[in-house]
DNA sequence: TTGTAGGCGTTATCAA
DNA sequence: TTGATAACGCCTACAA
């Protein structure tokens, strides 16, 4: 391994000078800096991240922790975030939380909070408060945070507006009995559920129904215990077999993966989409465009989401340069300074309704 | 941050004793070790990875570098590998190489080769020789390595056998004019292409054609410059519009993503699958099961692939414990010892032909 | 069985 | 403008 000492020797300067020069410190004379850069290049020198991180607490790495890397939406999202991180000159590393709380904690303790200058986290089981403890004061941006009073910055998908648009679209094309696949009717009674992704999406649906003057009952909701392909496919059978849903002519599935599996279930029974039942999904994964029939969906602009998330994160990361990072007692009083407000920001990713064959009548 | 000194103080022992105790060194008395473990637990102590890595060269992290994290096959593969790594008690981190050579080099230089005890790499642009230099002596297992004379252990998909099975299946169900979508007819003339994934899959097709006594010409191959959804969809138009392929009644697409996009292209033109044209894919991604019609495919057993890859990798990682790691001059002479042969191993992942609607006649 | 001490490669504080 | 020097937190001979 070639270390900084080797470069220093080759360039005829001290290690300290090499360190300054390679990081662009203006105190080093241009000629010296150039000489050092050339020596480093020739020796294929690369700064040791462990040593740098140990000494300075900064690694240049941004972590992304996401649930289930083998599902279309999370994987497209982490890819987009990953690319945006690289674009800003940081090294992205992705980790899969796989749903278990222990897993999430392990990831945060073992690598993310230690190695990373900041992290993008899609919370599953861990609460905001627990996250605060696990973050060790490192900046973190949450994706679709469900906490009623947030601790961290977050970027959300347009759950309410998007879902409302989906339901409005079904109404617009003439659907009389619309069924929302995912939530149960009494879900909103639970405060914690109400602020979750499914709760917010359901709220959007209810708003749309109300705006259109549609009466709502439990017949408008088909609950799903797990948002997985198999139960989603079977949900189609349940819909077709139950008297409650027999005249359903429009379905809004809370994710594209649910929608595509549900559509497969309808195909199993020979039900035609959109002729017999029109269908709308949510997410806008690539798959939705290539399905037969292609799926109308609420597409989340993942590039926009990534940009907003990384903007928020890097603001905090760079603000941390001066402070200790672990002691947020900086200046709670100076609320006049708007640059980095202490209160967590909450942004929403851009989205659009993409009309495709599944609602073309 | 709570360090080893804090634990030592709390337990009333020295730092060294803490280090030994927490890593299960038998020299420490059971009672002492237990006391130390409890103190560590109470303080929420976590060993600093940077410090450990700097001092011992080991981090407990295994890296996975894969091309395009937002495609179904690579994402399912990295998820499977990631889970297997976690199962063995290591921390997996995933990075996306995004195809560019600079990107791959950057990833290897900046984080993988520095931070990781070993890595799983799906090579794109970088040659085996370059990899050797970039690996800094760290163990590495390649996935679908295309090098004719390999430098590293690798696990491959069953390109030849799988493709042969796909073509045989199409012949079995009665297809008379089979078209393979992906490669061009003259591809095998190029030595480098011949050992690539597409080359090996094509070789399998040719073998099947030969075994079945089918004459082969360029009319049996529909080349694809990029294996992306859009060109794949358009390839279907090309097939339908060209006199060369007009009577095609069976298609083998070299990946599921190609197959699903191609199928979508056929649907655009109102061609029925399997009635007019039967279709087989390769990979066995989740999506293939939920497509309408569901896709017959050569499914690679990703759990088996992950298990084999990590077995190979951890063998080398643990073998490195004694040696310097960067100096592989250990014992090239003792070829009698079969435990860790110096010559790279090449394994093949288990696979199966999954028959579904797209070939059901 | 446990403690002492030195160093991994870098950065930051001083002094020159 | 540059150089010496002391940490950062951990591991590991070696000494006790």
Estimate nothing, just give the exact number of structural domains of chain A.
3
The helix fraction of chain A, in percent, is: 40-55%
CATH level-four homologous superfamily name of the largest domain in chain A: Response regulator
Strand order, main sheet of chain A: write it out.
2-1-3-4-5-11
The two chains with the largest interface, and their residue counts, are: A-B, 54 and 54 residues
Shape of chain A: elongated
Poorly predicted regions of chain A: 322-340
CATH architectural label of the largest domain in chain A = 3-Layer(aba) Sandwich
Note the beta-strand portion of chain A: 5-15%
Outline the biggest β-sheet of chain A.
6 strands, parallel
Q: According to CATH, what is the topology of the largest domain in chain A?
A: Rossmann fold
Helical element count of chain A?
14
Q: Round the mean pLDDT of chain A to the nearest integer and report it.
A: 90
The multimeric state of the shown protein is homodimer
List the helices and strands and how they pair.
Two copies of one chain form a homodimer.
Chain A: H1 4-11, H2 15-22, H3 30-42, H4 49-56, E1 61-66, H5 72-87, E2 91-96, H6 101-115, E3 118-121, H7 128-135, E4 140-143, E5 153-156, H8 159-172, E6 178-182, H9 191-194, H10 197-211, E7 221-223, H11 229-241, E8 250-253, H12 256-268, E9 278-283, H13 286-290, E10 296-300, H14 302-319, E11 346-348, E12 351-354
Parallel strand pairs in A: 1-2, 1-3, 3-4, 4-5, 5-11, 6-7, 6-8, 8-9, 9-10
Antiparallel strand pairs in A: 10-12
Helix pairs in contact in A: 1-2, 1-3, 2-3, 5-14, 8-10, 11-12
The first copy, chain A, binds a DNA duplex (16 and 16 nucleotides) through residues 1, 3-5, 13-17, 19-20, 23, 27-29, 32, 47-48, 50-57.
């Amino acid at each position: 391994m070639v270390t900084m000492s080797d470069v220093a020797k080759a360039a005829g300067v001290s290690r300290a000078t090499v360190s300054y020069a390679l990081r662009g410190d203006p105190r080093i004379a241009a000629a010296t800096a150039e000489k050092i850069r050339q020596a480093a290049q020739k020796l294929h020198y690369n700064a040791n991240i462990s040593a740098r991180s140990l000494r300075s607490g900064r690694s240049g790495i941004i972590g992304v922790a996401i649930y289930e890397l083998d599902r279309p939406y999370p994987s497209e999202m982490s890819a987009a975030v990953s690319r945006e991180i690289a674009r800003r000159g940081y090294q992205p590393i992705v980790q899969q939380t796989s749903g278990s709380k222990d897993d999430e904690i392990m990831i945060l303790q073992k690598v993310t909070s230690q190695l990373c200058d900041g992290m993008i986290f899609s919370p599953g089981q861990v609460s905001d408060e627990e996250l605060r403890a696990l973050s060790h004061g490192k900046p973190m941006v949450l994706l679709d945070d469900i906490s009623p009073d947030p601790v961290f910055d977050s970027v959300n998908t347009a759950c309410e507006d998007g879902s409302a648009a989906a339901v409005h679209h079904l109404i617009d094309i003439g659907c009389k009995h619309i069924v929302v696949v995912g939530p149960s009717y009494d879900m909103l009674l639970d405060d914690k559920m109400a602020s979750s992704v499914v709760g917010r999406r359901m709220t959007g649906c209810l708003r749309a129904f109300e705006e259109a003057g549609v009466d709502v009952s439990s017949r408008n909701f088909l609950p799903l215990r797990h948002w997985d392909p198999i139960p989603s496919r079977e949900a189609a059978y349940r819909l077709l077999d139950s008297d409650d849903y027999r005249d359903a002519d429009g379905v809004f599935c809370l994710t594209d993966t649910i929608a595509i599996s549900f559509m497969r279930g309808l195909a199993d029974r020979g039900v035609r989409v959109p002729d017999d039942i029109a269908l709308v999904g949510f997410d806008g994964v690539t798959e939705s465009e290539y399905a037969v029939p292609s799926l109308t969906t609420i597409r989340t602009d993942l590039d926009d989401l990534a940009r907003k998330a990384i903007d928020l994160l890097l603001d905090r990361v760079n603000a941390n340069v001066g402070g200790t990072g672990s002691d947020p007692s900086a200046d709670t009083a100076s609320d006049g300074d708007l640059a980095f407000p202490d209160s967590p920001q909450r942004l929403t990713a851009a989205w659009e309704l993409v009309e495709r064959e599944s609602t073309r009548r």
